[in-house]
Amino acid sequence: MQKQLLLGDEAIAQGGIDAGMSGIYAYPGTPSTEITEYVKASKEAKEKGISANWAANEKTAAEASLGMSYAGKRTMVCMKHVGLNVAADPFINSAITGANGGMIYVVADDPSMHSSQNEQDSRFFGKFAMVPVLEPSNQQEAYDMVHYGFELSEKFEIPVMMRLTTRLAHSRAGVERKKPVNQNEYKIPKNLKQFILLPAIARQRYKKLLEAQNAFSDESQNSSYNSYTDGKDKSLGIIACGLAYNYLYENYPDRNIPYPVVKIGQYPLPYKFIDKIYEECDEILVLEDGYPIVEEMLKGFLDKGKKIHGRLDGYIPRDGELNPNIVGEALGFKKTRGNEIPSIVAKRPPSLCKGCPHIDSFLGLNEALEPYGKGRVFSDIGCYTLGALPPYDAINTCVDMGASVTMAKGAADAGMHPSIAVIGDSTFTHSGITGLLDAVNDKSNVTVVILDNYTTGMTGGQPSSAFERIENICKGVGVEEEHIRVLKPLKKHHEENTAAFKEELAYKGVSVIIAKRECIQTLNKRMRQKFKDKKK
Amino acid sequence: MNKKDIILAGVGGQGILSIAATIGYAAVQSGLYLKQAEVHGMSQRGGDVQSHLRISEKEIASDLIPEGKADMIISVEPMESLRYLPFLNPEGWLITNSKPFINIPNYPEEESVVQEIKKISNHVILDAETIAKDLGSAKVANMVILGAAIPFLGLDFGKFEDAIKFIFGKKGEDLVNININALKAGWKITNDKIKSRG
Predict the structure, then answer these.
(1) A285 strand-pairing partners
(2) What is the ipTM metric for this complex?
(3) Which of A11, A47, A94, A350 lies deepest, with the highest CB count within 10 Å?
(4) Is the CB of residue A258 less than 8 Å away from at least one CB of chain B?
(5) Angstrom distance (rounded) from CA B17 to CA A236
(6) Contact A341 B120 (CB under 8 A)
(7) Does a structural domain hold residue A528?
C-alpha cells in the first residue's frame, strides 16, 4: 500500500478509523484539533458510521467517550493538555471504573506554549491515574499505536492515554496503513457494578487497579515501542522518550550512536532496560520533550546514585520544547547556528484579523470604560485574548476556560464596580454558563460581554455549540431580560454600542451584553463556497 | 540529490503551505522521504509563521531542521526571510519576495531590509507580486517564488508541473496554466542570475 502523507494528528485519526473505532469526542484545542477534524471530514469514517462529535467541553467529551466504552465500542477522546485539566474528573475516575470497549485519551501537549497558557506534561496525569501511557516518536508510530492502544485497553479493561506534543501533532510524514479492523459489537459490561464508584465498590476497583500495575509494567517491558540498543562506549547511557529519540538520531547522520540507548514509547517505564542501562553505564542522560518526569523518577529525592543528566542539572534547558540542537549540545557537539538574526527584524505577534468583530467590541468597551480607568476587564481563552495587545490593551486577565465570568464575580464581590467579563460564545458554553449562574444567584455587580462570532475561531472555525441560543441561555440562567443587550459590532454602530456599554457598566446587578457578528474568517470561507456552488 | 532542508517563511495567512504542498508532492512522486513541520493555531492570525520541510533519499530523523543546516530559506516576505538566518548553512540560498507585508507599527525601513538580504552572498530577491500581476493574477505570487527556488531543489521542473496539475487540476486548465507560467517566470529569474555569476 502506498504511504499517505499525514500530520501526526491525522495519523491518529486514520489509525482510529482503521482500528475499529466507533466514536470520537473532542473540544477543539491546538495542537489536538486536527484529529477530530480529520475524522469528521473522512468519507471512510462516514461510510463506517463512525460518530464524530464536537462536545461542549473536554469533560463532556470524555464522559461521552466513557459511555461508548461502557457499551462495548472502541472510542477516542481528544484534547489539548489543559483540556485534560477540565476532563481530569472523568479521566482519574475512569481508571478506577476501567473500560469495556477500548478507550484512548489522546492528549496533545504544547511545550514552548506555541498556542497555550502553560506547558504542563500529561505524562504526570497518566502516572497519577495509574494508566498505561503511549508516546509516539513519529507519525507511523502514532498510527500504529492506536491499534495497539485499543488492544491494550481491552486486554486490561483500562483506558489508555496517548500523549504527543505539538511538533509531532503538526508535522507531516508518510504513513503506511494496516488492514482495517471491524468495529466491536454492542456489548454492555459483564459486571454491571463495574462502573458504580460507590465507596464499597470503588475500594475494590481501586485495589484491582493497584494490582494491575505490575502487569502494565510487564506489558511495557515486552512492548515493541520500548527498546534497548547497545553501544560500545559505556561512559554514557541515553534514555530518549517519544519525539526526543528523533532529535538524538539527527545528531548521528550515519545512525551509529556510540552509547547504549533506551527508547521509550510506552509507560510505565520498562524496568529491565532502565536497570540494565543504569548498571552498565557510568552516567545517564535523559531526553524528554516536556517536564523532567523520567529524570525525576530515576534521580529520586536523595539523588545519591550515579549522575543523571537532563533538565534538572542544566544539561538541557528547564523549559521549552526540545530540538536537535539542544540535544546535540547536551551530547557535547559544537553549535551549528548560522548567522544571527539582523537587529532590524521586528517581532510580529499574531493580531486580530482585519474586519474582525472583536475589534469593534473592544473599541466600544474601551471608550465606555474611560471614566472608570483601566484594570477591570477579566477575559478568557480565544481570539479575543489578542485584545490584550496594542493598540487595544483592552483586557487584564486570561487564565483558563470560563475564568473571566467567575473572576469578574469575585472582584465585584470584593467591591469592584464596574467589573467586566469578556468571553467568546464557545468559551461561554464550554465553562462560562455555571459562573454566570453563580453571579445571578449572588446578585453580583458584573457585566458579562459575550463576543458571539458564531464559531470557535482560534482553532479554525468549528461550530459553536449553542449557536443562536446564547440569549435564551442567559435568560434561562436568570439574567433580567432588560439587562440582556444584543449589539451588532460594526463601525457604523459605534456610538449606540458604546452607549449600551455605558448603561450596563453603570447598572448594579448582573448584566449581559451579547455582541453578535460572524467571524470574518468563517464568513469569507462561506462566501467563497457560495461563489463556487453558484459557478457549478 | 542527497537531501534538501528547506525553511519556508512568511506571515500567517500568506499561504506558505501551498508552496510546501507543491514541493511535497513533487518530492514524494520522485520517491523521496519527506517530513514537514507546520505552524497551526494562534500564530496563523497574522503572526510570523514558518514551516520546516525536509526531503531526502534516506529516512529522516528529526521533524525540525537543525540550526545552520538548512539548504535554503524560501520566503514570501522579505523581513521574514531574515528571521530564520540562524538555520541557513553558509553555502545555503535565500530566496525571497521583495514586497513587504506591513501589519506592525515598527516595520523596519524597506531599504535596510533589502540591504540585509544582499549581505547573504547566495540570495535571490524578486518582486513576485508584480510578476504575478503581469501574468494575470496576484494570487500566483507564491508560485513565482517557488519557481525561483526550483533550480536549487534538485528535482526536475516537470515534477513541479505534475504537482500543479494534481493540486489545481480540478479547478480548471486556466488556473493550472497560470500557476505553471508563474513557476517558469520565477525559475527564469534564478537561472539568469546563476548564468550571470558564471
Answers:
(1) A238, A309
(2) 0.94
(3) A11
(4) no
(5) 41
(6) no
(7) no
